[in-house]
Specification:
The protein has 222 residues and is mainly α. The chain has a single domain, classed as Triger factor/SurA peptide-binding fold (Orthogonal Bundle), CATH 1.10.4030. Helices cover 64% and strands 5% of the residues. Helix 1 packs across helix 4. The protein is globular, with a radius of gyration of 17 Å.
């Protein structure tokens, strides 16, 4: 997948989106409603080691092994394994199908934002990235973890940001889509729980209508 050097913040994205209650009941990939989680705070040494392993994966043959095509994006075995590895570091056990389902959702959200004309511009995305990293820098514990992983990967903060521009753009698209739908729902203020249910159903339908093709069933079944 183009520019998909998946690490910490990507897992935050896919897991936080999934936590809205939208799962793969409408896709061939079943995701448990409660992903097995053990509270786990990795040491900085573990984070650095994970970064080194991620870099090795990026340079391995898995990066050339297509598994699923979602709209126009190709998800490789490396994309999937990188997400699983980073999630595991933080105590989250994800299957291959879990990760593919989250990718289907991510791309479905991006496609819907484009359809509605609210997909972020490059300038919007740049501002969003700057604001995000400003918050990260102001949170000592998070910044130390990000810095440790970048150290393990052997890349600078700027190189990391540039390689993940499209990911941040899709994340901002998800925020904009949720705000767009919220404005159209009068229930948002009167009944937040009902509004969340409606939004979850809306995303569920996006996943159901998503265009995707499994390229390597053998990899997913192993």
């Amino acid at each position: 997948m183009k520019n998909k050097s998946i690490i910490l913040l990507v897992c935050v994205f896919i897991l936080s989106i999934a936590a809205t209650g939208v799962y793969a009941s409408t896709t061939p990939f079943e995701i448990p409603r409660n992903v097995p989680t053990e509270k786990q705070e990795p040491s900085l040494e573990q984070v650095t080691q994970n970064g080194q392993e991620i870099q090795d994966l990026l340079q391995s043959d898995l990066g050339e092994k297509p598994v699923v095509k979602v709209f126009d994006e190709i998800i490789t075995a490396a994309d999937i394994e990188l997400v699983r590895k980073s999630a595991k570091l933080h105590g989250k056990q994800l299957t291959k199908d879990d990760v593919v389902s989250y990718y289907v959702l991510q791309q479905a959200v991006a496609a819907e934002a484009k359809k509605l004309g609210i997909y972020p511009s490059k300038s919007e995305t740049k501002e969003f990235i700057e604001n995000t990293f400003e918050k990260i820098r102001n949170n000592n514990s998070i910044y130390k973890e990000v810095a440790a992983e970048l150290k393990g990967r052997g890349v600078s903060e700027q190189e990391y940001i540039e390689s993940r521009f499209d990911e941040y753009r899709d994340l901002l698209a998800a925020y904009k889509l949720k705000n767009h739908i919220a404005k159209e729902m009068e229930l948002a203020k009167k009944d937040p729980a009902k509004a969340n249910e409606i939004y979850s159903n809306y995303l569920d339908q996006l996943v159901k209508d998503a265009e995707y093709k499994i390229i390597d069933k053998g990899y997913l079944n192993n």
